[in-house]
Amino acid sequence: MDDQNALARMGWHNDFLTQLDLEELETARPVRVADTDGRSVRILEAAGDERRLGLPPSTHPADRPLVGDWLLLDPDGGLRRRLERRTHLARRAAGTAERAQPMAANVDTLFVVMGLDGDFSPSRLERYLVMAREGEVDAVAVLTKPDLAKDPENARRSIEALPGHDGVVTLDPRHDDAAAALAPWLTSGATVAVMGSSGVGKSTLLNRLAGGEVEATGGVRKGDGKGHHTTTHRALYPLPSGAWLLDTPGMRELRLGEATEGLAEVFEDIERLARQCRFRDCAHEQEPGCAVRAAVEAGDLDPRRLRNWHKLLREQQRLAETEAEQRERHRDFHRYARKVMRTKRDQTGRS
Ligand SMILES: Nc1nc2c(ncn2[C@@H]2O[C@H](COP(=O)(O)OP(=O)(O)OP(=O)(O)O)[C@@H](O)[C@H]2O)c(=O)[nH]1
Ligand SMILES: [Zn+2]
């Protein structure tokens, strides 16, 4: 194995070691994926080298490495296998396939950026928290534009009170001290990602975190030894603090995929109440003995949170139905195809 300290600086965690067998512990080289185009990946090695590695053409899309993944190389430098992800961020795939599509691997902390101006929406934040929790990623709410808020302190407190986050920070990304406010999560080897609506200050914040050395667009300026600079594309790049910023085009928008675990965690208070309702299948509407409604009436549960929980649950049900329907359609098609083939065979047999 390579130098453990160098690996740790790249985001390696010792719990990955449990995935290696004895031979691999001796000879295999872990490398991290900094970018991918589906056919090849750009990898970072502990020795500091960076290069492209082709993927076998037969690689199934679901097995393709993602930005942030750890791969094991054989001693000769060939790809051996991908290590199981510690965490992931997934979103709903575009098009007809509604399933969750992972887009980033091994992210430690997701910064969910939300403006304290008109952008402020605890329900949208809860959606991001569900996504993070589903993939076991820590989530920190970053509240921007305090200068445009009527009562930023009150807004911060209301977010602080929500379950499912790992911290709330208010900052103005245009100010020099913005990076310092996030320092607890920007430690050496930590991998962070940033999501949030358009215009909330993500790019401004990324430029601030990068200290002006790296653009927020993923372009890394790299010396080529001849005194001038070339730009290589990368979705994972180092910040001056020693942390890694993972940022891919399109990743910043929110489309929640299958996330029942995440939902259960972010709304654990409501789910706990729901277990106390008189009826097992209580819809928490007009039923007698409903503990959820009782909590709302007693002022212990924000009706907004209840509405959002219902909404996200319904969405999850729709996703599940769509998947079942797709499988059904698939089966129908194959049944039909078999029938056509049989008819054809019969006809050929007869003629
Ligand atoms: N008043 C105020 N303006 C801010 C603050 N943070 C960012 N801005 C401004 O808001 C505008 C949008 O900021 P961006 O960093 O481009 O936002 P973004 O989230 O990257 O937006 P997209 O690229 O569309 O996703 C810029 O003009 C920033 O200067 C803040 O805390 N207060
Ligand atoms: Zn109920």
What features would you describe in this structure?
The chain has 351 residues and is of the alpha/beta class. The protein folds into three domains: 4-82, SH3 type barrels, CATH 2.30.30.140; 88-246, P-loop containing nucleotide triphosphate hydrolases (Rossmann fold, 3-Layer(aba) Sandwich), CATH 3.40.50; 267-341, Probable gtpase engc, domain 3 (Ribonucleotide Reductase Protein R1, domain 1). Helix content is 33%, strand content 22%. It is built from ten helices and 15 strands. The protein has helices at 4-9, 22-27, 122-134, 152-160, 178-181, 202-209, 260-266, 268-274, 291-297, 303-350; strands at residues 29-36, 40-45, 50-54, 70-73, 79-82, 88-92, 100-105, 109-115, 138-144, 168-170, 191-196, 219-223, 229-233, 236-238, 244-246. The strands form four sheets. It has a six-stranded mixed sheet with strand order 10-9-8-11-15-14, with helices on one face. Strand 6 and strand 7 (100-105) form a beta hairpin. Helix 3 (122-134) crosses helix 7 (260-266). The structure holds guanosine-5'-triphosphate and zinc ion (ZN). Belongs to the TRAFAC class YlqF/YawG GTPase family. RsgA subfamily. InterPro entries: G_CP_dom, P-loop_NTPase, Ribosome_biogen_GTPase_RsgA, RsgA_GTPase_dom. Its EC number is 3.6.1.-. Monomer. Associates with 30S ribosomal subunit, binds 16S rRNA. Residues 321-351 are annotated as: Disordered.
